[in-house]
Design goal:
alpha/beta; Rossmann fold; nine-stranded mixed sheet; 9 strands; about 15% strand; globular
Length: about 375
């Protein structure tokens, strides 16, 4: 596998175009909605986009991101962008971290140095953070089928190409499913998998009679169904008609910011104010990666691709490598341990004191400590 150094270099013309589009935003009306019950607050998005247009410094953020060692490689016909940060000490342990939607590799910027250069060098990792196909600065899939199982196979080839025969996997959101598929399909290489989000590991397929659910599992699945009914509109459209949505989000930076920012407010431990969990410039940098790459439509397609090959282990399959799970209090779902144990060999399960869906951005120190603790006995 040939790797090539990569640096982000957005043309001045693209930055000028962004500011001009923001200035020409055609604003919708709004019912007084300070609690965002109809969607993204008009006052909030006007403030955020005004900051994006006039005060936000993309060049400073670009330089910050370019301090991360970035590369690209062609795997299965797709260009994969990735960070490859080597750890200190004589034996750093390889770890591949996968992001989800509407995140990006930007999510991991603060946690990477905590893992590569910990207080005790014996805890150091070589950290690989790829941008999912169709996300960030990776290439876009040109045909259907790039679902999490296929991405897991790409990750296995990436790690092999980097010279890693045995490694750990970590992830949240779609990164949770990808990391799980990686551990399931390539257990001879994955020493362990650590997650901070869990997808539906026990959604029975049609005609399959599962073992009886415990009361806690029934409550959990009911809470997931309730959340999907209240908050799952984005999921429904991205799973069915992502292309239709893509025209608006690719053309309007204000629309893109509103679509993504609403998820950060709803899914973070922010008590209704995004900046309580995620710095405004960090949020805009994540949004800017979607804007400048033009990859919001291809990123949204992962939801539709997943429908063709859903994450479903209700038929008795098990993931062999051990699991560590960090359950953050403001995550969008809270599975009981017994639910995970139907599929995983659970060796560490921790209820975290604070944090939400974007754990690596919100609580990088806490998440790094959990990752180190889980993999410590698996390094040998």
């Amino acid at each position: 596998m040939e790797t090539r150094p990569f640096q982000i270099r957005i043309p001045d013309s693209a930055i000028d175009d962004l500011r001009e589009r923001l200035a020409r935003t055609r604003w919708p009306d709004e019912i007084n909605d300070e609690n965002w019950s109809y969607g993204t607050s008009l006052r909030f998005i006007q403030d955020l986009t005004a900051h994006w247009q006039s005060a936000y410094d993309w060049r400073a953020e670009e330089a910050r991101l370019n301090r991360l060692p970035q590369f690209t490689a062609d795997i299965d016909g797709t260009k994969i962008h990735f960070v490859h940060a080597r750890g200190e000490g004589p034996r750093p342990f390889p770890l591949i971290i996968s992001h989800g939607w509407p995140g990006s590799f930007v999510e991991m910027a603060k946690i990477i140095p905590l893992l590569t250069h910990p207080e005790d060098p014996a805890d150091a990792f070589d950290v690989v953070v790829p941008s999912l196909p169709g996300f960030g600065f990776s290439g876009r899939p040109t045909a259907p089928g790039c679902a999490p199982p296929a991405i897991a196979d790409i990750w296995a080839k990436l790690m092999q190409g980097l010279g890693y025969n045995r490694y750990g996997a970590q992830g949240g959101d779609w990164g949770s499913g990808i990391s799980t598929w990686l551990a399931y399909k390539h257990p001879e290489h994955v020493a362990g998998v650590h997650l901070n989000f869990m997808q539906g590991v026990f959604a029975p397929p049609p005609g399959h009679t599962p073992p009886p659910l415990t009361e806690a599992e029934q409550k959990y699945l009911a809470s997931v169904a309730d959340w999907r009914a209240r908050e799952g509109g984005y999921f429904a459209i991205q799973s069915t008609k992502p292309q239709t949505l893509g025209y608006a989000l690719t053309d309007s930076p204000t629309g893109l910011a509103a679509w993504i920012a609403e998820k950060f407010r709803t899914w973070t431990d922010c008590n209704g104010t995004i900046e309580n969990a995620v710095d405004r410039n960090e949020l805009l940098t994540n949004i800017s990666v979607y804007w400048f790459s033009g990859n919001i439509t291809s990123a949204a397609r992962i939801y539709k691709e997943n429908l063709a090959n859903p994450f479903n282990f209700a038929d008795g399959r098990r993931v062999i490598p051990p699991l560590g799970f960090a359950r953050f209090p403001k995550e969008i779902s809270h599975p009981p341990r017994s639910y995970a144990e139907r599929v995983f060999d659970v060796q560490r399960w921790t209820d975290m004191p604070r944090g939400g869906h974007f754990a690596a951005m919100e609580q990088p120190v806490l998440l790094a400590e959990e990752i180190r603790a889980f993999f410590r006995p698996l390094r040998s």
